[in-house]
Amino acid sequence: MFQGKVILLYGARQTGKTTLVKVLLKQHDGVYFNADEPDIRVQFSGRTSSELRRLVGNSRLVVLDEAQRIENIGLTLKLMVDNFPEIQVIATGSSSFELADKLKEPLTGRKHEFLLPPLSMEEIEASRGLLEADRHLSFAVLYGMYPEPTLFPSASEAQERLLELAGSYLYKDILLFGGIRHPDYLEKLLRALALQIGNEVSYTELAALIGLDKNTIETYIRILEQAFIIFRLSPFSRNLRNELKKLRKIYFWDTGIRNAV
Question: Can you list the domains of the chain with their CATH numbers?
Fold first, then answer.
């Protein structure tokens, strides 16, 4: 914090990004802007450094939540970092495929990046103790580790919230992305990936199974990865040439989301 660089906080929806930054806002003299609001997006798009100064005032901490929704956000953040070095700017984004592309060039050497994943068993143990963490393990495997399903006391409530969560962030962010032309095929791809966790993934086989070409499958998998739904695990071999030839495995960030699809 306060090192003259913008902090980029990535993570899927509902992992606690907004909760985290609001805790930081209480600890510092900060101001919060939610880019889901249309007028906030207008206010921070295409502004000069003088106009940005009037927007943030004398605040030491400025948070731009869902920053990927602001047009030319990279240039806006660059102006703030270069002209207001005493201010700590935090930009959050639940769509890394949008935020990363918009920030790649303008913020080179001006940013620190952090990923906020779902909760871990280590965090559950720290808050509830080892015994309660052990008791929670089977629940976590089934319903995942997103904060809301984890905190619900009953399985029925956790399941209801998980299904709502899965539908919300799987389709709100991804299907609005311009590269998705076949939403039905995307659902089939997710189900296919969910059924072969731990196995090597062949894009050619997936393409034949789902009815799309190999390049489209590769594009969809990349988007799912950038949306923090899945991640690819590269093979390991003592022979580097063999490592290059082997297929990757694909896992879901959260077992609850995997079970919900």
Answer: 6-115 (3.40.50.300), 132-260 (1.10.10)
